[in-house]
């Protein structure tokens, strides 16, 4: 069963109008007004950022939240920031994207067999959402997953995304696993009850500049994701 685009479009329309978290609303709009000097001539999105990709996706790439001057500026998660530079290049090499770069929402990027979403849809101060904000935002991802019937694997970019995926599992009505599986790079959890979780260090500059995450490591994760999801 393939997702009806209209269903996902309706979720997207609802996501971008969300104002449930006052702190996040204030911050994302402040950033959009004040802007970074290098983007002073651009109009910032300044709203929640919905997921995007292939409605028939088998692989979900789950991040933390939009970057203040990335997704919060462009309106598409991981688009226009350094983390996205690494992510989309790796997805292109893995055959999950039609181009290796993404600079703005209308740049022609198309995903194949993949969907990308953030656990929290608004840019948070210091890139740290509160537990309440995390839980308030969770239903948006739950709603998207209900219409992504082909999903098999969740690539969790960082420990926050791994935790969010486990919460998504419970929200889907599947009991929390005991003992709780621990996050790690290339860690795999699959008890046959829900989607397979695959851990990956987040492609942040903190990890890529220090060598904690390298291109071969990222390529290995997406190769593993394709195999686990049965992507030809």
Compact overview of the structure:
This protein is 38% helix and 10% strand. With 232 residues, the protein is α/β, with parallel strands linked by helices. A hairpin with a 6-residue loop joins strand 5 (188-189) and strand 6 (196-200).
Overview of this protein structure:
- By secondary structure, this protein is an alpha/beta fold.
- The chain has a single domain, classed as Uracil-DNA glycosylase-like domain (Uracil-DNA Glycosylase, subunit E, 3-Layer(aba) Sandwich).
- 38% of the residues lie in helices and 10% in strands.
- The chain contains eight helices and six strands, in the order ααββααβαβαββαα.
- It has helices at 5-15, 22-34, 71-74, 82-93, 131-146, 159-171, 205-208, 215-229, and strands spanning 52-53, 59-63, 114-118, 153-157, 188-189, 196-200.
- The protein has a six-stranded mixed β-sheet.
- It is globular, with a radius of gyration of 16 Å.
């Amino acid at each position: 069963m393939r997702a009806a685009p209209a269903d996902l479009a309706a979720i997207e329309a609802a996501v971008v109008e969300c104002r449930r978290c006052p702190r996040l609303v204030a911050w994302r709009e402040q950033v959009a007004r004040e802007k970074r000097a290098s983007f002073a001539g651009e109009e910032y999105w300044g709203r929640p950022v919905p997921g995007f990709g292939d409605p028939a996706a088998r692989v979900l790439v789950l991040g933390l939240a939009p970057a203040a001057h990335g997704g919060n500026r462009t309106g598409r998660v991981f688009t226009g920031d350094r983390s996205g530079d690494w992510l989309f290049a790796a997805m292109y090499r893995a055959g999950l994207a039609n181009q290796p770069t993404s600079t703005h929402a209308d740049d022609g990027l198309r995903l194949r067999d993949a969907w990308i979403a953030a656990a929290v849809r608004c840019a948070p101060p210091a890139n740290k959402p509160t537990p309440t904000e995390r839980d308030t935002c969770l239903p948006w991802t739950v709603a998207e997953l209900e219409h992504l019937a082909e999903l098999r694997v969740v690539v969790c970019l960082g420990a926050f995304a791994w935790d969010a995926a486990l919460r998504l599992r419970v929200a889907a009505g599947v009991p929390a696993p005991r003992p709780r599986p621990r996050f790690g790079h290339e860690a795999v959890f699959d008890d046959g009850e829900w989607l397979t979780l695959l851990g990956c260090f987040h492609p942040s500059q903190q990890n890529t500049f220090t060598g904690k995450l390298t291109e071969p490591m990222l390529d290995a994760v997406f190769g593993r994701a394709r195999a686990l999801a049965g992507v030809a």
